[in-house]
Structure formats: C-alpha cells, structure tokens
Design brief:
Rossmann fold; alpha/beta; single chain
C-alpha cells in the first residue's frame, strides 16, 4: 500500500510540473502577442516632369542594386559613428532596401512617359538598355552632436544591352541634414532625398539613351 501511494504521489508531482510548464508557456505566447509590431514604412516614386524631351523608343530594364551587407536589409540603418552600424528597433521598410530602390527606379522612369517600356530585369522584357545600380549609402548618419544626415548614394551605369557595353555612368547623392529623432520624420527625409535622386536619374537616363541612339544612327 505504501508503494502504491508513493507512485501516485510521484505522478501527482509530474502532473503539477507539467501544468506549471504549460502555464509558463501560455504566458510566453501572450507576451509575444502583446508586443507591438514594428512600424512599416514605404517610400514613393518620383514623377519627373520632362515636357521638353522627345520620347525614346528604347526599352529599359533595371537590375536590383548591389549594396553592402549593412544596407541589404528591410531594417532602417543608423550609423552612430563611421565605424558602427545599428538599426532602428521598431521600424522596417516594406522590402529590402535594394529591392525597394529597384521598384522605385522602375516606377520613376515609367512615370516620365519618355520610354517605350521600363521593367525589372528578369521580368520578361526584351531590353535595349540595362540600368545597373549600386546602393552605396542608405542610412541615417550621426554628425557628432551637430545633428544627423539622411545620406543616400546611388551609382548608375547604363549598359547597351546587346553588346554589354557601358554607355554612361554617374553617381547620385542626397544629403538631408536633420535634428529629428522620430523615425516618421526621418523617413520623410529619405523620401525627399530619394525622390530628388530619382528625378535626376530619370533625366540622365533619357539623355544618355538619346545621345547613344543618335550616335548609333550616325554610324549606320
């Protein structure tokens, strides 16, 4: 009888431990569910006004930009010092920064109405030109007590697609000084800076394609 009682007591202890484990597990799930999800931010494409420009018959594809690993993320980059990379804890872009910039470039070029067709590389378009991009900077930089800069650097190379030859290249940069600490305000600086770059990029791409098409026509 004592042996049976002991075994039943041990079973009771195990059951109690199991219930305690389940209770703790339930608390962990509730805690995760109660935590605030990160805010998601999106940037807007430019709508460049190019009324003086004649439309080109060229079709262009935009490759996904190469970028250093620090920027190849959907997190918003903050650089407290030139040698340190951090991220805003509760904020995200809608996509990895290179893919987001690729999509915005396609939309901005298409918004000009000056190209026969614009699309992502690999989307089935038969291009005359390819725009290869490099996202060299895309973050908030600390200026040692003098505020912050939203800094964007985008390098572009226009490629004659059939010949894989560089037609033109240029670097575009935006530096937006700010004393803001709110992520929403910093995102607005990203939007303004990138929209300006996209407008310049669209004009430059059109001019480079136009000049190269004229050069090819003269050689015929």
């Amino acid at each position: 009888m004592k042996q049976i009682t002991g075994r039943l007591g041990r079973i009771g202890e195990l059951c109690a431990a199991g219930l305690l484990f389940l209770a703790l597990g339930g608390c962990a799930v509730l805690s995760a569910a109660d935590s605030e999800p990160p805010s998601i931010f999106v940037l807007t494409a430019a709508k460049p006004a190019m009324p003086q420009e004649e439309p080109t018959r060229a079709q262009i594809v935009v490759a996904e930009p190469f970028s250093p690993a620090a920027y190849d993320t959907n997190r918003i980059v903050y650089l407290p010092t030139p040698n340190e990379v951090s991220y805003f804890a509760d904020a995200r872009w809608t996509d990895r920064a290179p893919r987001m910039v690729q999509a915005l470039t396609v939309a901005s070029l298409d918004n000009t109405g000056k190209f026969l067709a614009v699309g992502r590389k690999g989307a089935g378009l038969k291009p005359d030109y390819e725009l290869r991009l490099e996202l060299r900077a895309f973050g908030v930089e600390n200026e040692s007590g003098a505020g912050k800069n939203v800094h964007i650097v985008l390098n572009a190379r226009l490629i004659d697609y059939p010949n894989d030859r560089i037609v033109a290249s240029r670097s575009f940069e935006a530096v937006r000084p700010t004393n803001e600490t709110r992520v929403e305000a910093l995102v607005l600086e990203f939007d303004n800076g990138l929209t300006g770059i996209m407008g310049e990029l669209a004009q430059w791409t059109h001019d480079a394609v136009d000049a190269h098409e004229e050069e090819k026509a003269e050689r015929r």
